[in-house]
Amino acid sequence: MTKDDDKLPTPEHREPPGGGDSDLPPGPAVSSGATAAGAKEAREAAALRKPTRPDTGERNGREPCPPEVAERLRELDHLRRTGRYASALALAQSLATAHPRLARVLMEVAMTVGIWGGAPAEALPWFERALELAPGHRTTRLHRALCLARLGRHGEAVAEFDALVEGGYRKALVLHMKRAESLEALGRHAEAERDWTLALAEDADNPWLLQQRATARTRLGRRDEALRDLTEALALQQGDGVDPELLHERGLLRAQAGDVEGARTDFQTGLAALRRGDPPALAEALRSTLQALPRPREGHGSTAEETGRRDG
């Protein structure tokens, strides 16, 4: 299973920009070229935004957002979501110049640059300036933590995630997923496994989360539990077709456990389940691991050579 946002448990609705703001002086210059990662990051942002109407009252230490600014922020969001990044960036910067003390405006500049523009290093100072004005705004703090993680500053990101968890931030699922990823990058696999388990408590029937916990458990030597996670993930996918990556991972664990025929079945089924667009490396991994198994006993399935010739 590939790790893309279509497989992440994210809500479909997002908060319109302009809700209850705070302020900041104009931030650093930013580049105008959006990257290919922008669309992916934008989908991730949808997981972090609550579907509410823009408000004009003070909230979480932010100054109120005037209705006319809220309207321009809605326009900004429309430009971003329709792929007009250069126009969105120009509007965001003009709003920051006109309203240097509105933290919501500064946060939207940061979102434009970091998510749609794919430039977390350029976005980070904007988030930090916003937090100087509204230190109690936890969504801004979460996005700053995500920027830190994207920049490889995982220790700082984990500290921010810890503070948000302790503060009872409402997006528990997102927090546990993202903290788990940073903990894995730091080699803290037992804590990462704990966070994947907490994420599954929020979304129990998510195959991607089960796959991530299986990976963490494999690193901890808990092979039987990892096998159960992968088997459960595959069972949840029956209606949509079997994921060849999950079959490859389970086949590897079965082979390590001495279940050669079970591994062979997984690799063969994975090859047959390959879909257009699956990475060539996955097909090669399935073929090579299948061919590395001892030859099947007579009468037990197809040979590695026959299966290896399939292209899915």
TrEMBL record:
It comes from the Bacteria. Residues 1-69, 289-312 are annotated as: Disordered. Residues 1-16, 40-62 have a biased composition (Basic and acidic residues). Keywords: Repeat, TPR repeat. InterPro entries: TPR-like_helical_dom_sf (IPR011990), TPR_rpt (IPR019734), Ycf3 (IPR050498). Pfam families: TPR_16. This is Uncharacterized protein. It comes from Myxococcus stipitatus (strain DSM 14675 / JCM 12634 / Mx s8).
